[in-house]
Amino acid sequence: MCLRTGNKLFTILLLVMAAIGFGCSKEEDIFVRIEQPTSSFKTYIAEPNYPKLRRESSVVLLDSAVYFKNLSDSSQTSSYQWDFGDGTTSTERHPVHSYTKKGKYKVKLITANYNKAFDTASVTITAVVGQKNIALGPNVNNSSIDVVETVRGFLLLGRQNDATVYTEPATTYLMQLDENMNKVSIKTYPSTTRFNSISATNDGNVVLTGTTTGAGQNNQLIKLDQNGTLLWARQLGENNSYSKAVPTPDNGYLLTGSRNPIAGTNGTPQTVLLKTDAEGNKVWEKLLNEEVVMQQAYNTVVENDGYVLAGLKGKGAEGLACSYCDSLVIAKFNTNGALTWKNTIAWAINSDNLWDTKISKLQNGQYVVINSNARGLYFFSATGAFLDRKLLSNTTYAHTGTKAGNLVVLNHEWGNGFRASVTGLSPEGIKKWEGRLDGSQTLQSGGIRCCSDSWPVTIHALKNGGSIMLANRVDQREGSYSYIDVPVLLQFDETGQIQ
């Protein structure tokens, strides 16, 4: 038997054996027409705020419909077999499907005709979480403070109050989110409790800075389990106010903050470092006002052999920090609090005044320093040598180094309103991508209001790569001229694609 093809026509030569006389045989060509079908399709999604409008896309939000438009050859004898890549199938001509877990799914369509000839087409669908707006009600002011990744998903730290009662004090809450950033539970605390940062610990719990006594300062280290239950709280210093606490390799904690001047005296708050043991008891404390003079350090990079932080060195003891007269100080201390190295350079970042100074470490061993009221990125070597300075288009607010070694910066844009945005850069500080929030507000009465402003809060690296940003969107209350905050969470992969 031989087979030759052309113009979708298969020719099959069959040997037909027939007895003629004494073993004679006869050959005949038998032609069988088999039409080869063509398989093809496109994918569409509905616009989130306008569900009747659909656009072609291979990226879809979780639990949102993907509309498959079959462009294959059609006839009464055609059949279709869909494989959506998540274990489900369909035989409809134009099916609709949704995904419940984020990831990439290869969708296949097999188009066959009556004589079993077939063709296959495929498209990869990416299912993403997308932007999560954590509203607690149309009249609840919900202001986020920090977010931390856990083995369960995420913990969102914030404060809430009834926006219709102006005298009602805000209460602190800890909200559990699953891996898709959906609300699982929320635990609220008495009005005397206030938290201002949260970090995951080495034993699967969390530590926070703040107060449980209603004090005017954030002078406590507080440990909670992942359900938000208080394990212990330690007051560490009368005049200290801590901005960040992180675990150390020996299972203790390192706190970064400032020491306020004694009431009735002049002076500027100085940066303070405080090391504790695993139970939160003070091991040593270092006030940076002698061999290293530093103010306004927000956080510290913890390493196996010590701690690196950066801050402001004021030209004088009084007055506001200013970019034209003050200096940037970066320093490393060993695990016992002794100075290892330090460096001081001019700020020169085109800002009227300076706020919190924040530091992160990249995978290449370099440190990046920003000030949360300026546009400058300062790069330092592993030994504190100044390497480079980059200027971004917008004010920096927070930054982080990712698992792949890139740098991601949370920005504050000013112009026609104000809004949070994200800039992705290479390890050398070269801009690669930008990401922005959707500021459209869906109204309870129906319709859309555009466009809400937003305040940047923080950005963190994710364990499996990429980053997660947190901002507070400012929504107008319906029927009122007042506004409420709504936390917004958005994840990016290393290339800036929303996850």
* Biggest sheet architecture: 7 strands, antiparallel
CATH superfamily of the domain at 41-128: Immunoglobulins
Radius of gyration: 31 Å
The overall average pLDDT, rounded, is 88
Distance between the termini: 55 Å
**Order of strands, widest sheet:** 30-31-32-33-34-35-36
Query: What is the beta-strand fraction?
Result: over 45%
Predict the CATH topology of the domain at 41-128: Immunoglobulin-like
Percent helix among the residues? under 10%
Unreliable parts: 1-22
Secondary-structure blueprint of this entry?
Blueprint: E1 2-6, E2 9-14, E3 28-31, E4 41-47, E5 50-56, E6 59-61, E7 66-70, E8 79-83, E9 89-90, E10 96-97, E11 103-112, E12 118-128, E13 132-133, E14 140-149, E15 154-162, E16 171-177, E17 183-188, E18 194-200, E19 206-211, E20 220-224, E21 230-235, E22 240-247, E23 253-259, E24 270-276, E25 282-287, E26 300-303, E27 306-313, E28 327-333, E29 339-346, E30 357-361, E31 367-371, E32 374-380, E33 386-401, E34 407-415, E35 417-425, E36 431-436, E37 441-442, E38 448-449, E39 453-461, E40 467-476, E41 483-492
Parallel strand pairs: 6-12
Antiparallel strand pairs: 1-2, 2-3, 4-5, 4-7, 7-10, 8-9, 8-11, 11-12, 13-41, 14-15, 15-16, 16-17, 18-19, 19-20, 20-21, 22-23, 23-24, 24-25, 26-27, 27-28, 28-29, 30-31, 31-32, 32-33, 33-34, 34-35, 35-36, 37-38, 39-40, 40-41
